[in-house]
């Protein structure tokens, strides 16, 4: 029996989705800015880049561009490695964990964050990470070298982060294999209805209107987008191939957790993610067409 046959179809993807939502809350709340501001990191793009790349150590722009994949290199180079002259990566890692805890406390409330259900989700998510692999996954591997925190809320966010970066590294492999460059990956993802809007892509990833329009043109030439910017049948199939390949590369932690554990973690994390979103974790205009 294969790994794919041991879990319900797309079970890993369904479990990962709310965990990724919980991880991402830290990048949209005021807490991360309150934590990094005193370290001298105040530019919004610098805050985002430093917070997510700090686990890699004081690296230059190249490794960050490679691991983040869909950010414009020139945008990254404006802040990396210069940001490490303001604060050490270790200080940024610690600040991000404090910000993540404070963000989730604000969004979920004291009763939920202190609940046995949250502690259970933290245990399940951490157990899943035991089967993650470092090979070919640089961003995951860097985070896996960080110490495991003690408090359940911190553990849940830490484990969600490991699972997110593990899947993300595999997703980059799938995008490269599909022949989708960084801008094409963003535009085609937005065309599925689950990606960032054009405004947020420009704001956070650094691409210009002209670069996004050029990506649209390339995707139309490949028959992946129609004239209105919607995915064609071929485009839909390619995006699903990317997700299916990402699922395949990301099955191990969820197979390790087992079908019952995956179902329970999906239920718990799903409830927490819904509560966070309802509490205003993300901007209303975050998702949309690119």
Question: Strand percentage, roughly?
Answer: under 5%
The strand count comes to 0
Query: Which class best fits the helix and strand makeup?
Result: mainly alpha
Assembly state (oligomeric): single chain
Outline type? globular
Report how far apart the termini are. Answer: 41 Å
Q: What number is the mean pLDDT?
A: 96
Order of helices and strands: HHHHHHHHHHHHHHHH
Largest sheet: none
Rg: 19 Å
How many helices? 16
Verbal overview:
This protein is mainly alpha-helical and 290 residues long. The chain is built from 16 helices and no strands. It has helices spanning 3-6, 11-24, 31-36, 44-53, 61-68, 73-77, 89-108, 110-113, 116-129, 138-144, 152-178, 182-191, 198-205, 209-221, 233-249, 251-278. Helix 7 crosses helix 11 (152-178) and helix 12 (182-191) packs across helix 14. The chain is globular and about 50 Å long. The chain starts with a helix and ends in a 12-residue tail after the last helix. The model is unreliable at 1-5 (pLDDT under 50).
């Amino acid at each position: 029996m294969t790994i794919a046959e041991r879990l319900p179809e797309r079970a890993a993807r369904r479990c990962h989705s709310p965990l990724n939502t919980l991880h991402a809350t830290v990048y949209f709340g005021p807490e991360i800015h309150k934590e990094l501001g005193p370290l001298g990191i105040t530019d919004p793009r610098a805050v985002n880049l430093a917070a997510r790349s700090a686990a890699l150590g004081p690296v230059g722009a190249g490794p960050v561009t490679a691991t983040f994949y869909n950010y414009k290199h020139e945008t990254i180079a404006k802040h990396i490695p210069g940001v490490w002259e303001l604060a050490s990566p270790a200080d940024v890692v610690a600040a991000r964990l404090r910000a993540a805890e404070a963000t989730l406390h604000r969004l979920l409330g004291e009763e939920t964050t202190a609940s046995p259900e949250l502690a259970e989700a933290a245990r399940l998510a951490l157990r899943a990470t035991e089967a993650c692999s470092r090979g070919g996954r640089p961003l995951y591997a860097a985070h896996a070298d960080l110490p495991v925190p003690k408090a359940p809320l911190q553990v849940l966010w830490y484990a969600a982060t490991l699972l997110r970066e593990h899947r993300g590294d595999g997703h980059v492999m799938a995008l490269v294999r599909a022949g989708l460059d960084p801008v094409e990956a963003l535009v085609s993802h937005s065309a599925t209805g689950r990606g960032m809007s054009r405004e947020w892509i420009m704001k956070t990833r650094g691409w210009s209107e002209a670069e996004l329009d050029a990506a649209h043109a390339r995707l139309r030439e490949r028959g992946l987008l129609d004239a209105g910017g919607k995915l064609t049948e071929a485009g839909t199939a390619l995006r699903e191939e990317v997700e299916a390949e990402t699922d395949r590369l990301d099955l191990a932690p969820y197979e390790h957790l087992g079908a019952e554990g995956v179902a329970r973690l999906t239920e718990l994390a799903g409830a927490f993610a819904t509560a966070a979103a309802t509490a205003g974790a993300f901007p209303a205009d975050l998702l949309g067409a690119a």
